């Protein structure tokens, strides 16, 4: 599990923490026969993972990651079943962000404006790369994707109440993603 908090000590502060297992992969439905005309193999829709409250027994840093031990998860097999799960907290339980700070989830869905006021698109997803670099996947108005490396010098302003962020992309970034390939 990836931890995105400033400090693992925050885990000790939350009144409740919730665990959402990763969604299972779809599996073919048993009994579907592909050899008969008109019958197709169907894919069984997996049940949505159930979020449940959990209690953290302890945690510690381990090889650059956070190793978390939960009540009721007593052995390695039970822990392996949780691989890829998400730890969640209620928004109301989050500490107030500091001046000029925001939570990553708040960025998703914001309208992306350029310095001249024109609209580039919307932030579809926030990605944290292994080296700690934050990247926004921006869907443009014409359906293209721009991967925007976030740095203080590239973000001119954010207004969560109004739902927008103004960016100043590094030179050549937009041309890399938005040049029309048909003219070449």
Describe this structure in words.
The protein is mainly beta. The chain has two domains: 70 residues, no CATH class; 75 residues, PRC-barrel domain (SH3 type barrels). It contains three helices and 13 strands, in the order ββββββαβαββββββα. Strands 11-10-9-8-13-12 form a six-stranded mixed β-sheet. Strands 4-1-7 form a three-stranded antiparallel β-sheet, with no helix packed on it. Strands 2-3 form a two-stranded antiparallel sheet. The chain is globular. The model has no long low-confidence stretch (mean pLDDT 83). Belongs to the RimM family. Binds ribosomal protein uS19. Keywords: Chaperone, Cytoplasm, Ribosome biogenesis, rRNA processing. It holds the Pfam family RimM.
What is the fold's blueprint, element by element?
Blueprint: E1 17-20, E2 27-28, E3 43-44, E4 52-54, E5 56-62, E6 65-70, H1 76-80, E7 86-88, H2 104-107, E8 111-114, E9 119-128, E10 134-140, E11 145-149, E12 155-159, E13 164-167, H3 173-178
Parallel strand pairs: 8-13
Antiparallel strand pairs: 1-4, 1-7, 2-3, 5-6, 8-9, 9-10, 10-11, 12-13
């Amino acid at each position: 599990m990836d931890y995105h908090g400033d400090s693992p000590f925050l885990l000790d502060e939350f009144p409740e923490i919730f665990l959402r297992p990763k969604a299972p992969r779809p599996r073919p439905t048993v009994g579907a026969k592909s050899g008969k005309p008109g019958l197709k193999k169907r894919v069984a829709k997996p049940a949505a993972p159930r979020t449940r409250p959990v209690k953290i027994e302890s945690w510690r840093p381990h090889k650059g990651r956070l190793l978390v031990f939960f009540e009721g998860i007593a052995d390695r097999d039970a822990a392996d079943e949780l691989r890829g799960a998400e730890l969640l907290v209620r928004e109301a339980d989050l500490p107030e962000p500091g001046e000029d700070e925001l939570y990553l989830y708040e960025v998703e869905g914001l309208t992306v404006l350029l310095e001249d006021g024109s609209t580039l698109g919307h932030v579809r997803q926030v990605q944290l790369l292994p080296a700690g670099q934050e990247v926004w996947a921006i869907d443009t108005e014409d359906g293209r994707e721009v991967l925007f490396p976030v740095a203080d010098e590239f973000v001119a302003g954010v207004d969560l109440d109004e739902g927008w962020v103004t960016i100043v992309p590094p030179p050549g970034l937009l041309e890399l993603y938005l040049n029309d390939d048909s003219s070449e």
